[in-house]
Design brief:
CATH superfamily: Aldolase class I
CATH class: Alpha Beta
CATH architecture: Alpha-Beta Barrel
Strand content: 5-15%
Number of strands: 8
GO biological process, one term: glyceraldehyde-3-phosphate biosynthetic process
Oligomer: single chain
Catalytic activity: D-glyceraldehyde 3-phosphate = dihydroxyacetone phosphate; L-erythrulose 1-phosphate = D-erythrulose 4-phosphate
EC number: 5.3.1.1
Largest sheet: 8 strands, parallel, barrel
Bound molecules: ligand LBSJTCU2
Order of helices and strands: EHEHEHEHHEHHEHEHEH
Number of domains: 1
GO molecular function, one term: triose-phosphate isomerase activity
Keywords: Cytoplasm, Gluconeogenesis, Glycolysis, Isomerase
Number of helices: 10
Structural class: alpha/beta
Strand order of the largest sheet: 1-2-3-4-5-6-7-8
Length: about 260
């Protein structure tokens, strides 16, 4: 088990500036559990303001994507140094929505992971199999390929920096998604951990994401090899996020003191 539980949310392409501000202000006034690392990932335009509102708290702010080059003729793209300048500390890479709708390849994810580390950002690398791949019994093979590609540009030195995976089965994500059963999550996380340790020489924390909610969060977060949760819809209201945080903090504390 990693030292801290990582529990965070990406807002995807949601919220007005006012809603983003109110969420951050409310969150800034709350106290996190010592063993939980909280993080939120707003859309690009809100990163700086949200980061400023959360300055001095334990909450890290992230971005949902970036380019691998630090600058250049890449119209419409955003680079790692720009994100860091806005106050981002984490960057989400390879989410299935980007892989599906924006043709993001394993190679591009690998380049982005390297660039993120080079510029002091924590990559949160999203991996996961589709429903068809699961049905064909290919889940472990897909996950291994994605982990290998994500780490393929890194050198030994790079593994001294923090790095996170989020296992998000594509069939579990969003409206119409079904949360993965805990036994299934446990098996996939064990596999991801094994591959990541072989490549990096150390355990890489891996979060679970996909239809996480208040009812299933404690069972998921206490699965062996699950180092946190990456939440979408259920944490888009700040009260929803705080509810999941407190349930997980209690469950984890019970587990460690048992
Ligand atoms: O990105 C995700 C978590 O932020 C993921 O897609 C899960 O979304 P959810 O199914 O709405 O929780």
């Amino acid at each position: 088990m990693a030292e801290k539980l990582w529990i965070g949310t990406s807002w995807k392409m949601n919220k007005s500036g006012e809603e983003a501000r109110r969420y951050a202000q409310r969150l800034a006034g709350t106290q996190g559990a010592k063993h939980v690392q909280r993080f939120i990932i707003p859309p690009f335009p809100y990163i700086r303001e949200v980061a400023e509102l959360l300055e001095g708290t334990d909450i890290l702010v992230g971005a949902q994507n970036m380019h691998w080059e630090p600058s250049g003729a890449w119209t419409g793209e955003v680079s790692a140094p720009m994100l860091a300048d806005c106050g981002a500390r984490i960057v989400e890479l390879g989410h299935s929505e980007r892989r599906t709708h924006f043709n993001e390849t394993d190679d591009a994810v690998g380049r982005k992971v390297k660039a993120a580390i080079d510029h002091g950002l924590i990559p949160l690398i999203c991996i996961g199999e589709t429903a068809a791949q699961k049905l064909q019994g290919e889940a472990d093979h897909v996950l291994k390929t994605q982990v290998e590609a994500a780490l393929s540009f890194l050198e030994d030195e790079d593994f001294k920096n923090p790095l996170l995976f989020a296992y998000e089965p594509v069939w579990a994500i969003g409206d119409g998604g079904t949360p993965a059963p805990p036994d299934y999550v446990r098996a996939r996380h064990a596999r991801i951990r094994k591959v990541a340790v072989e490549l990096s020489g150390q355990p890489v924390p891996c979060l679970y994401g996909g239809s996480v909610n208040a009812a299933n969060c404690t069972e998921l977060v206490t699965c062996p090899d699950v180092d946190g949760l990456f939440i979408g819809r259920a944490a888009w209201s700040v009260e929803g996020y705080l509810d999941i945080l407190s349930r997980c903090a209690i469950a984890e504390k019970r587990k460690t003191t048992a």
